[in-house]
Design brief:
The structure is a single chain. By secondary structure, the protein is of the alpha/beta class. About 45% of the residues lie in helices and about 10% in strands. It has an 8-stranded mixed sheet, with helices on both faces. A hairpin with a 7-residue loop joins strand 7 and strand 8. Helix 3 runs antiparallel to helix 4. The termini are far apart.
Amino acid sequence: METVILAVVIAVVVLGALGGLVIGSRRKKPLPPPPPAAPDITAPPAEPHVGDEAETPRDEPRRTIEEVDLPDGSAPVAVEEPPAPEIEIPEPTAGRLVRLRARLSRSQNALGKGLLTLLSREHLDDDTWEEIEDILLTADVGVQPTTELVERLRERVKVLGTRTPVELRSLLREELLTLVGTDADRVVKTEPADRKPGIVMVVGVNGTGKTTTTGKLARVLVADGRTVVLGAADTFRAAAADQLQTWGERVGAYTVRGPEGGDPASVAFDAVKEGKEMGVDVVLIDTAGRLHTKTGLMDELGKVKRVVEKHAPLDEVLLVLDATTGQNGLVQARVFAEVVDISGIVLTKLDGTAKGGIVIAVQRELGVPVKLIGLGEGADDLAPFEPEAFVDALIGD
C-alpha cells in the first residue's frame, strides 16, 4: 500500500514539471532584430568668416619677397601738416571809434535827456532838484559826485537866468566833463623807453570778461602794428587758456600756458621770459578771476605781480569791471587796488543795461582813469575811452 502511494506522488511531480516547461515555452517571444547601421551624413559647409574668400581660391602665381620692389628709403615720405590758422587783420582803432560812439549814444543818452528835461522847466524848485539828484544816483554816478554836480548846476543856473536848450546843453556838458575828467592820462602804457617788451597784467573777477578783454586788447595792439605774447596765467579755469590761445591765434600772437591747476606765477614769469627772447613789443598776462572775498587767493595774485617784476616792472595793471554791476563793482575795485596797484580801468558791457555814471564813480573811488571801454561782444568792440565822446553820448545830440 505504501508503495502505491509513493508511485502516485512521483507521477504527480513529474507531470507538474512537464506542464511548467510547456507554458514557459509558449510565453517566450522572439528577440527584435538588431538596428540597421547608421547612415553616413555629410556635414554642411561652414559659414565664411571675415577675411575668407567667397569662393574656392584658384591657383595663382605668387611672388617671393625677392621679386617685390621695396622703397629704398631715398625718397622722403610726405606727411600732411594741418593747415595753419588764418591770421585776421583787426579793424583799426580809429575806424571802430566811430561805430562805438554811435552805439554808446543810442544806449546811454537817457541820463542826459532826463537832466535836460528837468533843467528846462520854468521854475526849478527843491522838488525838481531832488528829481535831478535821483536821476544821477540811478545812473550810478555816486553820492558825492552827485552832490557836487547838483550844487554847481544850481549856482550856474541861478547866475545864467534865461535858459535856452542850447545853453543848458552846453552847461550840462561842461559839468559832466569836469566830473569825468579830461586831463587824465588814458593811454595804455605798452612802450617803455628803456626796454622791451612792455608788460601789462589784466586782473578782475570771473564773469567780467577779463580773458576776452585780454584777447581783444591783443587785437588793438596788433592793429597798431605791435607784436604780442599772451600769458595764460589763469590756470584754475579749464577753458581760460584755450580761450586765450584762440584769441592769440586769430591775430598771430604766441600764447604761453602751463598745466591746468599749475602755478600762475610760473606761467606769468615764463611769458615775460619768452617775450624777451622773441623780441616782441608787449606781453599781456591774463590772471585768474579772484573772488574779492577770498583773501588767500588775492595774496596769490600779489605773488604773480612780484614774480613778474623779477624780470622788469609792470607798465600797466588793468582792472576789468562789468559796467552792469554798478556800485557793487566798486567793492571789487577797492580790494584789487589794495593788492596790485591798479593803473587803469577797463569797463566792459557799457551798452544795454549799464549805467553811464559808473565811469565817474569808479574813477572817483580808485583815483585812476578809465582807459578802455567795451560796448559789445564783437572781436573789435573794445576801444580807448574818450571823455568828450562819452559825455556827448550821455546827453545826446
